[in-house]
Amino acid sequence: MKETIVLSASFPVAPERLYKAWLSSKEHTSFTGDKAIVTKILNKKFSAGNGYISGKNLILEPYNRIVQSWRATDFPDKHPDSFIELTFTPNKTGTKLTLKHSGIPEGMGKDYKKGWKDFYLEPMKEYFTK
Questions:
Q1: The domain that contains 37 carries what CATH number?
Q2: What are the residues facing 70 on neighbouring strands?
Q3: How far apart are CA 107 and CA 122, in angstroms?
Q4: How many domains does the chain have?
Q5: What is the distance between the alpha carbons of residues 20 and 75, in angstroms, rounded to a whole number?
Q6: What residues are paired with 37 via a beta bridge?
Q7: Tens digit of each residue's pLDDT (9 = 90 or more) over 3-47
Q8: Range of the domain at 99
């Protein structure tokens, strides 16, 4: 059975700023600390985490939502790609980012939840509050 996790965090920047940073190789690399080659082009492939993550942009709704196929190198060989959906919601202090990661291989959800917090949300909070 596949797993789904949902996380959210608020950042002191506008949705436009956060959306553009996610799709910028330079900024994605800067806020995670790991090499990322990302794109703002629909149906184009990306990689992040020094090659640990790969996927493709499936839906790009500027400043509102990003949906990507997502695969890590530790996925079982025959397991299909998972999906992430990012939504950018304006709030009083900037933007609430909600991340839904679905289609995670069974038994790996807890590790991915920790990974999203440790390698994305916490470093992004630090990056966007500088």
A1: 3.30.530.20
A2: 55, 82
A3: 23
A4: 1
A5: 28
A6: 47
A7: 999 999 999 999 999 999 999 999 999 999 999 999 999 999 999
A8: 3-128
